[in-house]
Design a protein that fits this description.
The protein has a 7-stranded mixed beta sheet with strand order 3-2-1-4-5-7-6, sandwiched between helices. The chain is α/β, with parallel strands linked by helices. The protein starts with 7 loop residues before the first strand and ends with a strand. The chain has 2 domains: 155 residues, Vaccinia Virus protein VP39 (Rossmann fold); 45 residues. Helix 5 packs antiparallel against helix 6.
């Protein structure tokens, strides 16, 4: 993304600020994170301060879809690990366009189907295959300049952290009112992962340059 210490970067759905801290510490760029969940936003601020990066990272608690982004107000933009559905991710690419100048880079984490056609019983409308994923970037005015794809090991680590966190929380707090619902959802998602997602679903960070 050609980042340096003169640049201001938009980080949509920044979560707890992990990528923002890496970029700020590595390149010295300033980041403006937008995070809808207050707990995550507060943790992002606390962890930025603990790392001595509070002067470079600001986190706004808001729904990014409702935040007014001024034209050409950022030198680069990213949204990693939060493109849950295609409609929202298409909206993100359209919103990124006006917020960065021509020649600027954006990085978006997107899921895609690694296999096509899909086996019977798998919803084909959840995502699209890799060529269509790339085509959507082009259609939004960004030429693909790079890709960093998750490996199967990356997927396993990511999901394992979720499974462990759920099990530990339910063990420590067995009387949670929502415990049964959380466990049911957790078991369904884990089953889906082993049943088809691990084999069929890919994820990558796509880097594009605004035409």
């Amino acid at each position: 993304m050609r980042l340096d210490d003169r640049m201001r970067v938009l980080d949509v759905a920044c979560g707890k600020g992990g990528p923002a801290r890496i970029l700020a510490a590595t390149y010295g760029c300033r980041l403006h994170g937008i995070e809808i969940r207050p707990t995550f936003a507060e943790q992002a601020r606390e962890q930025a301060a603990a790392a001595g990066l509070e002067a470079l990272i600001e986190v706004e608690t808001a729904d990014a879809a409702k935040v007014r982004l001024e034209p050409d107000s950022y030198d680069a933009a990213l949204c990693l690990g939060a493109a849950f559905v295609w409609e929202r991710s298409r909206t993100r690419r359209r919103r990124f366009g006006p917020s960065v100048p021509e020649g600027a880079y954006v990085a978006i984490g997107e899921p895609f189907w690694r296999v096509w056609p899909l086996p019977e019983g798998v919803d084909p409308d959840a995502f699209v295959a890799l060529p269509e994923t790339v085509a959507r970037f082009a259609g939004a005015g960004f030429g693909i300049t790079g890709i960093v794809a998750a490996s199967e090991d990356d997927w396993d680590r990511y999901h394992s952290l979720h499974w462990r966190a759920v099990e530990e929380r339910l063990t420590e707090h067995p009387q949670l009112p929502e415990a049964d619902a959380v466990r049911s959802m957790h078991e369904t998602r884990r089953s889906d992962y082993f049943r088809y997602q691990r084999e069929l679903l890919g994820w990558a960070i796509f880097v594009g340059r605004k035409a």
